[in-house]
């Protein structure tokens, strides 16, 4: 029988990142340990620390920590420690003592050894290493293929292979929601190829957060394709799109980060360019994809000014519009006229309507997002058609990836929508994994004290989605022509402040962006800034410009906006 180390040889250089060595395992088993005195103790700065019980008296316990500190705490503030053989255990459900400090300590120890995957019963927990680890190589894929869960170390590939085996045998297997990188690894495992990147972190396949086209927070980057093009790996693109190689020359793509240490934009551009060809896009379509991407960048540089003694907007120069119109197959003068003087239907007639500078800027942003989003969705459809086997499907494996819960210094409408989605998903998860499971115990007569996991998220969800909730009030305000951010805020306060524990008035903080209200979410309290929410919710498209798109000489653009 092969030794554990020999069995891990199949994983190549990934082995030490997946399982502790036989030497380390034997050393842990032989390590001295006193089960009666070894404990975790609650610590004011570090949550929990290891310690040794010195004495017990009148419900109080005196503990000496590993750091040499002596603490006296209540009995319920100490937790039994697992023997050393459980250190870096691969499945935390196998621990003798399963509690918060034991889980946190195990995850911390594994993370310190760059073992980022750990099982917890049915689930695979991953801790982001924020660096590249050699645990996704082809040899690792092969090493997990056909292996039962207990036969290999924790990994997203094991979850993937088990799902595949369940599907083939017609059984039913539950799958948890994965974050973006692991979604890619699942796709990589099934198809051996993952999509190229999106955003600063990683690609989120099959979905597009269109707000990021025109706005990014400080720590974020816009879509990778912009920076790939500007990497100058293909200088002909710079010339064709009438752009520079400096992201800071383009407002829409330079509000956050413009580089990512782990990403080589030049290398990624070649991969993207090759993928477009491999996936069956024609030469004209490929050119159109690049041209529309460049046009979106130029849209962010369009400038407008207020006419003297009028509120009417007018172009502040035409050079940028000339470039954008050229790339989109439009007439520049017609584009500017449509932006500043759109035709709107009043009754049975069309009339020209003046626009303020703010209205034109909002319109330009909405149009840029619409172009990028429609192009993205068109590409997804085309790629799916190209990859379709045309064979009937009896089973499928679904992979769910959502944007993670977001708490930034500045939280806007996008963060509320993302966090609301997370609340709903968390409620669904809790209901099925905890509530229904415990109700099953009751039915079967198992003695069980019902545990409230503190996860009744209904109050926060209803505050957002119920009639006269935040979304409802926002929709209502969008119908009033004279509604403002202030009137929206006042209605929120009138309806919810003091009536819902989840709706709070934010506390002013130095150095932080202004906040207008706070929501108590399951993951923490988030301060929201409501500036621009009315326009974001309406996201109006200038129908006159859409009409120009439909008649564009660039066939792909006309197709994207075909009636």
Summarize the structure.
ATP binds at residues 173-180. One of its GO terms (biological process) is actin filament organization. The protein has helices at residues 4-7, 22-29, 100-112, 138-144, 156-169, 180-191, 224-229, 235-241, 265-278, 283-299, 319-328, 332-340, 357-387, 413-443, 458-465, 470-478, 485-496, 533-538, 543-550, 555-560; strands spanning 38-43, 47-57, 60-65, 70-74, 78-80, 117-120, 123-126, 304-306, 313-315, 343-346, 349-352, 503-504, 517-521, 524-528.
Which helices and strands, and how do they pair?
Blueprint: H1 4-7, H2 22-29, E1 38-43, E2 47-57, E3 60-65, E4 70-74, E5 78-80, H3 100-112, E6 117-120, E7 123-126, H4 138-144, H5 156-169, H6 180-191, H7 224-229, H8 235-241, H9 265-278, H10 283-299, E8 304-306, E9 313-315, H11 319-328, H12 332-340, E10 343-346, E11 349-352, H13 357-387, H14 413-443, H15 458-465, H16 470-478, H17 485-496, E12 503-504, E13 517-521, E14 524-528, H18 533-538, H19 543-550, H20 555-560
Helix pairs in contact: 5-6, 10-11, 10-13, 11-12, 14-15, 16-17
Secondary structure tally: strands: 14
Distance N terminus to C terminus? 68 Å
Give the number of helices.
Answer: 20
CATH H-level superfamily title of the largest domain: Myosin VI head, motor domain, U50 subdomain
The number of domains is 4
Lateral strand order in the biggest sheet = 4-3-2-1-5
pLDDT averaged residue by residue = 88
Specify the CATH architecture of the largest domain.
Up-down Bundle
Protein name: MYH2 protein
Domain Myosin motor: 87-563
Domain Myosin N-terminal SH3-like: 34-83
Pfam family, one: Myosin_N
């Amino acid at each position: 029988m092969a030794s554990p180390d020999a069995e891990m040889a199949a994983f190549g250089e990934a082995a030490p990142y997946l399982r502790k060595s036989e030497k380390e395992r034997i050393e842990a088993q032989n390590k001295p340990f006193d089960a009666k005195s070894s404990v975790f103790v609650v610590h004011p700065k570090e949550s929990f620390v290891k310690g040794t019980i010195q004495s017990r008296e009148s419900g109080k316990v005196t503990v000496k920590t590993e750091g040499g500190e002596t603490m006296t705490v209540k009995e319920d503030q100490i937790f039994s420690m697992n023997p050393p053989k459980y250190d870096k255990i691969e499945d935390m459900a196998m621990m003798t003592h399963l509690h918060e400090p034991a889980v946190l300590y195990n995850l911390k120890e594994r993370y310190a050894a760059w073992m980022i995957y750990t099982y917890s019963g049915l689930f695979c927990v991953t801790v982001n290493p924020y660096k590249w680890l050699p645990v996704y190589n082809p040899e690792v894929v092969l090493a997990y293929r056909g292996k039962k869960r207990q036969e290999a170390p924790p990994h997203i590939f094991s979850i993937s292979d088990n799902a595949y085996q369940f599907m083939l045998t017609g059984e039913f297997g539950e799958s948890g929601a994965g974050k973006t990188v692991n979604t890619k690894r699942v796709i990589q495992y099934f198809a051996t190829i993952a999509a190229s990147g999106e955003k600063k972190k990683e690609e989120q396949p099959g979905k597009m957060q269109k707000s990021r086209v025109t706005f990014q927070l400080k720590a974020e980057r816009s879509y990778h394709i912009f920076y790939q093009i500007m990497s100058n790996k293909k200088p002909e693109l710079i010339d064709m799109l009438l752009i520079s190689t400096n992201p800071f020359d383009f407002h829409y793509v330079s509000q956050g980060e413009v580089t990512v240490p782990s990403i080589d934009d030049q290398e990624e551009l070649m991969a993207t360019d090759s993928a477009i060809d491999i996936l069956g896009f024609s030469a004209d379509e490929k050119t159109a994809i690049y041209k529309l991407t460049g046009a979106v960048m130029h849209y962010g540089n369009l400038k407008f000014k207020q006419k003297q003694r009028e509120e009417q907007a007018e172009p502040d120069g035409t050079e940028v519009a000339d470039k954008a119109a050229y790339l989109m197959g439009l007439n520049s003068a017609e584009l500017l006229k449509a932006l500043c003087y759109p035709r709107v239907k009043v009754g049975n007639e069309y009339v020209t309507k003046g626009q303020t500078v703010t209205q034109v800027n909002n319109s330009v942003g909405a149009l840029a997002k619409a172009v990028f989003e429609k192009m993205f969705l068109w590409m997804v459809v085309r790629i799916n058609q190209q990859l379709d086997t045309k064979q009937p499907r009896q089973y499928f494996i679904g992979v769910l990836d959502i944007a993670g819960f977001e708490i930034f210094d500045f939280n806007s409408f996008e963060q509320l929508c993302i966090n609301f989605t997370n609340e709903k998903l968390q409620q669904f998860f809790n209901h099925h994994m905890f509530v229904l499971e415990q109700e099953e115990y009751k039915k079967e007569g198992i003695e069980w004290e019902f545990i409230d996991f503190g996860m009744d998220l209904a109050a926060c969800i209803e505050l957002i989605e119920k009639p006269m909730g935040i979304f409802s009030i926002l929709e209502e305000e969008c119908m009033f022509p004279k509604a403002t951010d202030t009137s929206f805020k006042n209605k929120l306060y009138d309806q919810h402040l003091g009536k819902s524990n989840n709706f709070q008035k934010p506390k002013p903080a130095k150095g932080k962006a202004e906040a207008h209200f706070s929501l108590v979410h399951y993951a923490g309290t988030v301060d929201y800034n409501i500036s621009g929410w009315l326009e974001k919710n309406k996201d109006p498209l200038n129908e006159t410009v859409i009409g120009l798109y439909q008649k564009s000489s660039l066939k792909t653009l006309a197709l994207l906006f075909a009636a």
